[in-house]
Amino acid sequence: MKKRLLQDKFIGSLVGTFVGDALGMAVEGYTIEEIEKKYGQLDYMLEARLGAGTYTDDTEMMIGVAESLISASGFDGADMAEKFVTNCNLDRGYGAGTIEALNNIKAGSSWQEAGENIFDGGSFGNGSAMRIAPVGVFYHTDYEELRIKAKKSSQITHAHPLGKTGAAIQALTVGYAVNQKPEADFSVTDYLDVLTEYIDFESVEYSQALSSIQDFLKNVPEPKVVRNKLGNDARAFNSVPTSIYSCLINTDNFKKAVTYAINLGGDTDTLGAMTGAIAGAYHGYNDIPSDWLDQLENRERGLDYVIELGKKLFCLKHK
Ligand SMILES: [Mg+2]
């Protein structure tokens, strides 16, 4: 693959997280029915909590993951934990479990221990999958290492096995998407083979989701059926498979995949962020609609900064 395209994919996955997060934020917690009634098909930036085009904890933590991979030249748990603590702006809307883990780190817990006892056995929310794009793109040449690093990065805040598996599945999907030529059809069969080769599907939550995805690919149902069966809430085993499915049935362009995901309702900023991470890794930055990009916040740690992180991550990996 040409280096220019590969760099575009690195940037696309990071900015894809950002744009999906910003689009979804405005309707977080809405149902499919409420979004439909109020906006029809929502495919534009709405005024939201922190202003139109702003990002939430999803993107802020994704920035921390990228910064840490760059400064440590790869995964370093202590460094990443420190980046999360330094960057955390609670106005961006952090989950209770993540706040607790970050407080534990501030109080001296190691990155391995900080998330261990949250919610009795660790969190299995989607908070480690939503930020995983930089791990997925950086380790795209080695799926085994990718899976290990994704799980370790999850451990910092989401230590439950279901949380770690969600992060690994999302990261592997991003890495796989980086390796596919955007003009060729994304081979769903090949993707599912790779996924089942590298991920342990013994947990019933993910194996059921995987079999629902396979059924839906054969017989595409109404979005409400997808919502009911796969789920759209903040648990990793609900929203990670839903984001993946949103990409698999909308492989033609970035806009279609992200629009589909945010219109499912529920945890829409994270569904948007995770779908955007995969679709951005597949299509590249150039396929992200410019009217969406134009509206993203671009102060000191906004769009230009995220593009720069994507370039640096690419240079570290491939130059
Ligand atoms: Mg969020």
Automatic annotation (TrEMBL):
GO terms for molecular function: hydrolase activity; metal ion binding. Mg(2+) binds at residues 56-58, 267, 269-270. The keyword Phosphoprotein does not apply. Keywords: Hydrolase, Magnesium, Metal-binding. The keyword Ribosomal protein does not apply. Binds 2 magnesium ions per subunit. Pfam families: ADP_ribosyl_GH (PF03747). Its cofactor is Mg(2+). Belongs to the ADP-ribosylglycohydrolase family. This is ADP-ribosylation/Crystallin J1. It comes from Acetohalobium arabaticum (strain ATCC 49924 / DSM 5501 / Z-7288). The lineage of its organism: Bacteria, Bacillati, Bacillota, Clostridia, Halanaerobiales.
